[in-house]
Amino acid sequence: MANESTAAPAAPIDPGSVPSTQALSPGDRNRLLKCYMAGMNQLQTNANYAVDMLSTCVVGDPGNPVFLQKFLEALRRKHGGKKAGSITSFFAAGSRAGLKKLAASAQWAELVKAGVEIIKSNPFDHTALLAMAEACGNLMFADSQAFYLRAALDAAPADPEVNRQCARFAASQGNFDQAINCWRRIGQVKGLAEEAEKAISELSVEKTIAAGQGMIGRGSKPGAATPQGSGAAPPSRIDELQSVIKTNPADIDSYLELADLVEQKSGVDEAEKILLQALDASGGDLKVREHLEDRRLRWGKHRVMIAEKRLATDDSAENRESLDRLRRAQLKAEIDVYAARCSRYPENLTWKFELATRLKASGNYPEAIKYFQESIQDSRRRGAVSLELGECFQKIKQYQLAMQNYATAVEALSDREMELRKRALYRAGVLATALDDVDTARKHLSSLAGVDFGYRDVAQRLEKLGTAKDNGADG
Predict the structure, then answer these.
(1) What is the rounded CA–CA span in Å between residue 55 and residue 113?
(2) CB 155 within 8 A of CB 123
(3) Is residue 67 domain-resident?
(4) Which residue stretches of 267-381 are H helix?
(5) In this structure, are 390 and 469 located in the same domain?
(6) pLDDT digits (tens, 9 = 90+) for 336-360
(7) Last residue of a domain, one of 272, 305, 331
(8) What pLDDT shows up at residue 303?
(9) What is residue 4's predicted lDDT score, i.e. its pLDDT?
(10) Residue 229 falls inside a structural domain
(11) In this predicted model, what pLDDT tens digit does every residue of 289-322 receive, in sequence order?
């Protein structure tokens, strides 16, 4: 959708480097990679076979953008610009009804599987492509969602519903110009001009707000010729970098600078294409891979910020759902990235701590405990990690272990970490109360009250503990 192009960006040369979106066993993962290689080996000479092999990959791992990109490429080679005939369309109508039933029961993976069978016969079936995009959105496979939307827009560039969904997705990604272009096409349809004008006006406001929050582009480097706040890179520099890359495709630094400038001018999608080209040209260089990972995380945070602002101005069920989905997708992306870095740098305790905090946020407490226990070797984080461990152990009902870690946190956290220390004292006091350890509860809650008597409900809890003691004395 970037620049209204539906061409898929270049992919990393190694699909196995893309984190699996499914809970696949090593055997299943290897099987899909073998199907991928078999399909790729026949892509130029036997498109039918390539389609069959690559469709197996897409069904087995529907969120893998490399699998999907090559599957769609194989479909284009097989069908060219020839759309399905009337008989194929007739049978597809019944299949599309099946997609609606699967969507109604939220069977998203099954919907993708059924949709793959439809577009194998007719890759221009924009209704099926939209349904598959929706399924991937609900599964939090944003990359795959973007591919299906691009394919739908390519198949039906003037269709209002295709453009609505593309506009909605583009806006959620912070690509406001693309969203506005979609609404301009909608406005050309009879009876929809007023709706389009209203949407364009709202998007223009959101774009201005986002730019003011530093959510579009990275800004000019010191000394750059771009006027501050213009949000546009000098075309001459972009042309210059493109020329350098054409002459020397291995000049990775030029790719990275070009991605910065293109992000400011054309948006995230175009910048991502350039970074994927850099990854391909470098042979999967780790520096480029991690640069792309960092960018994707930053873009994801910006999307969440945009969704939060949209919800603040329009508290609708749709906006709440969109924000929740983006937050979950961002958390999943962070877990994938930090897990990969822990694997690459097993001695780096910072990555283990970052991964542990995300695993805890996702509710995976046993795995979070594992990485917190490894990261506690960093003495600078001993108090903070002990507090996190205490909360994880409490979640899995290991209360004595939780109390031990809260006590360690209280002892290790200094006055410079006062907010964490207050949280540790509160957690220890509340848990001790639940365990009927009145003396320990009073000790921690009194210490907390001594530094912040207004902290949450500490005053009421101390009062209850005092009442319990008085009743015991009276007895």
Answers:
(1) 9
(2) yes
(3) yes
(4) 268-281, 286-313, 317-344, 349-361, 365-375
(5) yes
(6) 999 999 998 999 999 999 999 999 9
(7) 331
(8) 84
(9) 47
(10) no
(11) 888 888 888 888 888 888 888 888 888 888 888 8
CA-wise closest residue to 355 among 385, 326, 380, 325: 385
* Cα 188 from Cα 158, distance rounded (Å): 9
User: The domain containing residue 282 runs over which residues?
Assistant: 235-331
Structure tokens at 412: 């290790």
Tokens of 330: 């961002």
* Whole-number pLDDT of residue 84: 55
Assign residue 304 the CATH number of its domain. 1.25.40
pLDDT value at position 3?
43
Q: What is the DSSP letter of 46?
A: -
- Assess contact for 112 and 132: CB atoms under 8 A: yes
How many structural domains compose the chain? 3
What are the CA-CA distances from residue 138 to residues 38, 125, 149, 152, 388 (Å)? Answer: 30, 20, 14, 18, 30
Residue 356 and residue 325 share a domain: no
CA distance 252 to 118: 40
Mean pLDDT of all residues in the chain?
A: 83
DSSP structural state of residue 76: H
CB 66 within 8 A of CB 15: yes
Using CB atoms within 10 Å of the CB of residue 242, give its burial: 0 to 12 exposed, 13 to 18 middle, 19+ buried.
middle
Regions of the chain where pLDDT drops below 70: 1-24, 81-95, 209-235, 467-475
Rounded to whole angstroms, the Cα distance separating 247 from 243 reads 6
Three-class secondary structure of residue 284 per DSSP: coil
CB atoms within 10 A of CB 225: 9
As given in the structure block, the two tokens for residue 132 are 């598959």
Q: What is the DSSP letter of 17?
A: G
